[in-house]
Specification:
single chain, 196 residues, mainly alpha, 8 helices
Amino acid sequence: MPNINPIIIFFASIITSNMVLSNFLGMCSYLSVSSEYKTATGLGMAVTLVLVITTALNWVVYKFVILPLDIGYLQYIIFIMVIAALVQILEMAMDRYMPDLHAKLGIFLPLITVNCAILGVTLFMVIRSYGFLQSLMYGLGSGLGWWLAINMLAAIREKLANAKLPPGISGPALGFIITGIMAMAFIGFSGIFTIQ
């Protein structure tokens, strides 16, 4: 286990190692659901919740099932099964208790299962040999960083919704341009916190 304080891992995963703005993982739902701030906030909460719980569960599964049984060749399948099960439970709970948000998120809620940011956090945790608390802080920070990025994009897109823009810049192109500018801004934070 590397000797990195979990608080440094937490802040680094939000700012300098942001899943969307530094690693460019989880871009599909990030760009598709970011046209309305309220919906983006709901998806951000869902992704953060899934990231925290799956990172913790996958750490336990990796340390106490995959390593002892020497079945590392199955780790991707096992990790995805844990993520899929948790997302299914979350989707049923949202359908029951938050039907409006469930309807707005639509197909993107079950697609959290294949969100590469969620699997990426688990794989980075394994590659970096994080301990449990480090993994938990990494999952929480990565989720909050993803949530921050989608909320910033949604807020900017809502402000520009009524602006007169050239035809080539509207729609998905605007999302890519804003994301690129935000990523360049976040590069300015590199060096404050570093995790490898």
